[in-house]
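Exercise 7b. C-alpha cells:
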C-alpha cells in the first residue's frame, strides 16, 4: 500500500453507531442551518448557496490537504455539504420553479453525472479506490450532490406526496432499518449498503429538521432555527466525546 493510500484511508472515520448518530445530526443541522441563512436571515437561496459553497470549497481543500484524520475537520466538511445541499435544493425546487419532482430529477442527473465522470476518470467509484487527492475530490463532490438530492427527496416526500414530516421520517427510518438488516443477514455489497444508508440519512435529516422549525400549522414544532442548530451542534459534539472518533482501518 502506498503512503498516499494510507493517508487517504486514515482520513475516513470508522463506521460505528456513533458515526451514524453524528451523520443524522449533521444532515438535520444542514437543514436548520440552511433555512436559518436563507429564510431567518433573509439572504435568499442563491446568496446562501454561494456562501455555503465557499465554506464547502475551503473545507474540502483543507480535508484533502490534511495528512491524517481530524474528526472536527471531517464533520465540518460533512455539515458544509448538507447546508449547501439544503439551499441549492431549495433554489432548484422553488426559485427556478421546477418543483420538487423536477428538482429531484435534475439533482439525480447531477449525481449520476458525478459518478460517471468519477468512473471514467479514475476507473472505479468504489470507496476502496479513494486513494488520491483527485479521487477524494470526486468523493466529496459526489457526497455534496447526494446530500442535495436527499434534501429534495425529503421535501417531495413530506410535502408533495402528502406524508408529512412524521410520516416521511418513519418512511426513511424504515428504509434505513431494512438496510441495516441487509447488512446483518445478506451478502449484498457492503459498499452499496454503506452508500445507500449514507444517502438516505439526508432526506431523514431534512424532514426531521423541517419538523423542528416549521410552523405548527404546517405540522412542525415551530422551534427557533438558531436554537435547533445550536442544540444539534451540541449533540454532535457530545457524540464525538462519548463515541471515540477513530480513523477507519479500511475504506467503507
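Sequence design result:
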Amino acid at each position: 500500500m502506498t503512503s498516499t493510500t494510507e493517508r487517504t484511508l486514515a482520513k475516513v472515520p470508522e463506521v460505528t453507531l456513533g458515526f451514524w448518530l453524528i451523520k443524522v445530526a449533521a444532515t438535520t443541522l444542514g437543514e436548520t442551518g440552511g433555512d436559518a441563512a436563507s429564510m431567518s436571515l433573509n439572504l435568499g437561496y442563491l446568496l446562501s448557496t454561494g456562501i455555503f459553497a465557499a465554506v464547502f470549497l475551503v473545507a474540502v481543500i483543507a480535508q484533502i490537504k490534511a495528512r491524517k484524520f481530524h474528526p472536527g475537520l471531517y464533520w465540518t466538511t460533512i455539515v458544509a455539504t448538507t447546508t449547501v445541499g439544503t439551499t441549492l435544493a431549495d433554489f432548484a425546487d422553488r426559485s427556478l420553479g421546477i418543483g420538487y419532482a423536477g428538482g429531484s430529477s435534475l439533482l439525480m442527473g447531477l449525481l449520476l453525472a458525478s459518478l460517471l465522470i468519477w468512473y471514467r476518470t479514475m476507473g472505479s467509484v468504489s470507496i476502496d479506490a479513494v486513494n488520491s487527492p483527485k479521487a477524494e475530490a470526486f468523493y466529496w463532490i459526489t457526497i455534496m450532490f447526494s446530500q442535495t438530492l436527499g434534501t429534495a427527496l425529503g421535501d417531495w416526500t413530506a410535502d408533495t406526496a402528502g406524508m408529512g414530516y412524521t410520516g416521511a421520517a418513519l418512511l426513511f427510518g424504515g428504509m434505513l432499518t431494512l438496510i441495516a438488516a441487509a447488512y446483518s443477514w445478506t451478502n449484498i455489497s457492503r459498499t452499496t449498503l454503506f452508500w445507500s444508508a449514507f444517502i438516505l440519512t439526508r432526506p431523514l435529516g431534512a424532514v426531521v429538521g423541517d419538523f423542528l422549525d416549521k410552523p405548527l400549522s404546517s405540522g412542525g414544532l415551530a422551534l427557533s432555527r438558531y436554537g435547533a442548530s445550536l442544540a444539534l451542534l451540541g449533540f454532535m459534539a457530545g457524540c464525538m466525546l462519548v463515541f471515540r472518533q477513530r480513523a477507519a482501518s479500511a475504506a467503507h
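Instructor comment: Residues 35 and 57 are 20 Å apart (CA to CA). The first helix runs from residue 3 to 10.
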